[in-house]
Amino acid sequence: MNSTLTSAIAMCATTLFAAPALAQDASGTGEDIVVTGVRASLRSAADQKRNAAQIIDAITSEDIGKFPTENVADASQRITGVQITRTRGSGTGVSIRGLPTDFTRVQLNGSTLSSAIVDLRGGGAGGNIGRAFDFRLLPTEFVSAVEVTKSQTAEMQEGGLAGTINVKTVRPLELGKTTAVGSLFGVWNSNSGKTTPQASGLFSTTLADGRLGILVAGGYSRDRTETHSVNNVGWAVTSEATLRQDLNGDGDRADRFNIPSQIRTEIAREDRKRTVLTSVLEFQATDSVKLYAEGFYSKFDIEVESLENLHIFTGATGGVYDPSSTRFTTIDGIDPAQLAYGVPYATSIGLTNTDVRANDRINDSVAKTYYGKLGADFRNDDWSGGVSFAYSKSDQVGDNLNLAQIQRFQVAESCQTGQDICGISLSPESQARYLDPAQGVVASLNGAFDRKTHDRVNEFKADLRREFDNGWIRRISVGGVASWRKTFADATTLVVPASALASLAGLSRSTVQASGWGLGPYTQLVEASRGRFLGAYNGSEPFPTSWRASDTRALLAAISREQLAAVPGAIQENLSSVVDVRERIFAAYAQLDFASSDERISGNLGARIVSTRETAAGVAPDLNGLVVQSETGGTVTVPPAGAVAASNSYTKLLPSANLRFEVTPQVILRAGFSRTLSRPTLTQLSPSTTVSGGGGNYTITAGNPQLQPFTSTNYDLTAEWYPNRDTSVTLALFAKDLSTLVRSETDSVTLPVTFYTASTNTNVLRDQVFQRTRPVNAKGVTLKGFEVGYQQVFTFLPGPLANTGLQANYTYISNSDPDVLTAASKNNFNVSGFYEDSRIALRASYTWRDKFVSSGLPGGYGGLGVTTQARGNLDLNVTVNVTSQISVVFQGTNVLDDADRSRTTLGELPVDYYDVGHQYMLGVRFRF
What does pTM read for this prediction? Predict the structure, then answer.
């Protein structure tokens, strides 16, 4: 690492001080040419970075209502040190310098935006309620700039251990004139083959001689996507005795080994609708005082139909049907506390009567987010400041219902080291029956039902500044923040057994499995909507391309929710999984800004003191009274043992200092020091406990209200060269010393469990081994790395080439615990080339993110850990200006059809493969 950093410093020093070829227009810093579009956006971002007191990067809009991409997260990855995470192809979260998305603080116009948007398939009470911001909430048409701050100052709110992102929206007094902009697009997804609308409009005007500004805007978008995937859900320990086969020929059946618990092929069809309204009112009451009010409303309506095909090997009731094809591998490095320690893995095995569940899982939710802010800013001679109060609430209600069926086939798996997917093949006899709708019997209708999540944030801020004209001290600032947050998520579940469904829906007895009920009309043939299933995969492993699944939507159309809820015992309140967390934060700061008389040396230093109190309420589970309903897919009933409450409080001092040295008007050096803080997710802080038995994986997941925050001591050095307004070369060196991380502590516990079979009304009590996981504070990690950025408009080239330009960056990250820290990709780069004249603008942007750990050792994924593989992404943008007011725009996202892949960290066995396809947009933008 030291040699790498040394080489980078030498390279940058050579570039900064001995590369006059880039400075062909070095005197052009005062040029009077007016530029617009891409070039103006790059200039504005460079000016912000150049003039800032600390280390900051920005992406600015090319024009009102015209951000560089249709997703704020996608645009931010063009900034050095920034990587993004995606959900079904859409950018949803941002990582800065190799730290998880929860370590990035995201603000809307400087305030916190609540978010109750959770994936109910994540388990527990509404999935994992974190602190990361979902960037799908905000249309880019309303965004004027995205600022990414990597070095903290005392006046900035804490919470961004990795960095802080401030999304700034358009302000009417900044526009200063009456403006109307709008857009209308058609969006086409390659996997679904569907075209959907996207529209937005913004109107801004000023009144009262420009002292009153009013802005209103609205947007609607609909996306219909289709994601194809193959997932190895996990590995489970079994034995030769269980499978009734002496596989190694040693004369006994005592040997244990791992088999895949379940391998899932899936087609997930998502229909996502977003409605957004926003408004801003600004009033310049006097020359010194400005009052403002702003509001934001978002409705996120998501319908996801996951047509899953689960091959549950742990549910096989027969033996090995082709012992000669069974293959094993051993994996070293597994922690001794894991059940899999010292146990080989069956990378190829075929089992008779494998439990195959081709289900239709309906994950529907509606989330509404409200945000309002009132504030006042003043400036009077040497004094300035401001006060504001922001309120934000977010509510989600949703289902995750699954009409589970059981089929029995001879199925073989192939999970080979270094492959992208686990292969699935069937014996000829099973293949002949695979698409027969009569093969399945109803297990149950089960899952999250009318599940509610709430998030509330109240935030009050006050700042006061005193400016000085002479001397080294230029400004003294003081201020504070008071914040109250309340998060709640229930855990209501619906479990309707097969007998009750048969009565409600008029089902008949199965002709294949005599003890069960057939699905009747509630089945469907599952195939890719367009092309072939998993079209991005070009490997050799086999997999089914179509299957016969249940049809949950058809059932729900025939039976009302009230009828389902009225079934005795169907509604289950899993009180031990409820999340109920409250958080109160008080913070105060003092900051001194200084500068030399010629202002070549400037900076700031200060400190922020933060007091946090967290209280969590819940219900302790009675883990000795667990009931597993075998026929419903392993749903677990957890009886309550009693109420539990916990609280935690801490106070942290966060010092910071930033120094800026202007070597020449074109060369700037910076240094930064800070201590930053991030808090555990709200789910981690809950005393809730979730027990699962699905697919033969028996797990217990608990929260920990006593978790302490993460703190990091950060060091930054940067060098920046601006030979002209269209060119910059930057280098940043950084180091982060995290004192602690939250890690998963995993052990095994044996509990008495009652296995209930509804069809025979029998109970069997036996001991069951569970993997128990809870978050704990553990040792921290040290990150080091460097960032190199370059952008230039090639104005010195002849003819049309003078309208071309390049923007590129590279980030290198190393850390002291590479198998544990999640999200840290070692090598990352982005290259964007563009052409722009008065009539047409072209841009191509390619992003590469190296592999990174997504589930850390020692406990992640049964002790194997998970590493997401390296991935590239190519986006295209073409804008044709029909007139000065109307443009035709084409955008392409992931045009190379790159897929998301992951393997185990130990052994490199396949885990997940997601084919999200590509997306094209075509439409018009107008401005009047």
Answer: 0.90
